[in-house]
Design goal:
6 helices, 197 residues, seven-stranded mixed beta sheet, 35% helix, single chain, Rossmann fold
Length: 197
């Protein structure tokens, strides 16, 4: 086992972030939901409502036991459901992987990391506060910066552009591949495979 493998051989929580409801489904802020939906398709199961305040799906990815988590709260309250699910399944912070949109990574790219700040992301801020630590894994799916003077808070709540939507299924699939690689091979190997340049 690689020493930078999430969860040290135990169950792993893969939490995708987004806002609930059909009006948000195509938003940039919801790309985390899109990625865990893709992973759910690979597992071959359906999400079920859970007492943690999230929808969860248990299964196996790349030979490891995982729980996919989609909070049913709004983004800035993601911490309660994510941490509630992690505690229910007895998963330590080192076994939590959060998949989220990232303004500072261009659309079409992604970054994997352990720990760090929230970079103004309210979902991460809520999870860090609820977990009591920043030491959890992140799959940062690039959405790029807003054009011109558009407020980032407005930008993340808009749907992907027409051009981006053509590429989006591929980008979501690659982000799901990266999450699987992180789970199977550890952070360094996954970074080497998925970080461009």
């Amino acid at each position: 086992m690689s020493e930078d493998l999430p969860g040290a051989g135990e169950l792993i929580v893969l939490a995708g972030l987004g806002n609930p409801g059909p009006q948000y489904a195509g938003n940039r802020h919801n790309v985390g939901f899109m990625v865990v939906d893709e992973l759910a398709g690979r597992i071959g199961g359906k999400f079920k409502a859970h007492k943690s305040g999230a929808e969860v799906l248990e299964g196996r990815l790349s030979g490891r036991r995982v729980v996919l988590v989609k909070p049913r709260s709004f983004m800035n309250l993601s911490g309660g459901p994510v941490v509630g699910a992690a505690r229910f399944f007895k998963v330590e912070p080192s076994g939590v992987v959060v998949i989220h949109d990232e303004l500072d990574v261009p659309f079409g790219a992604l970054k994997l990391k352990l720990g760090g700040g929230d970079n103004g992301h309210n979902g991460l801020r809520s999870i860090t506060k609820s977990l009591g630590t920043r030491e959890y894994y992140r799959v940062r799916v690039g959405i790029g910066r807003p054009p011109g003077r558009q407020d980032p808070a407005d930008f993340v709540l808009k749907d992907f552009s027409t051009v981006e939507r053509k590429e989006l299924p591929f980008e979501v699939s690659v982000a799901a591949d990266a999450a699987e690689a992180l789970v199977a091979k550890g952070l360094t190997a996954a970074q080497n495979e998925f970080h461009a340049g």
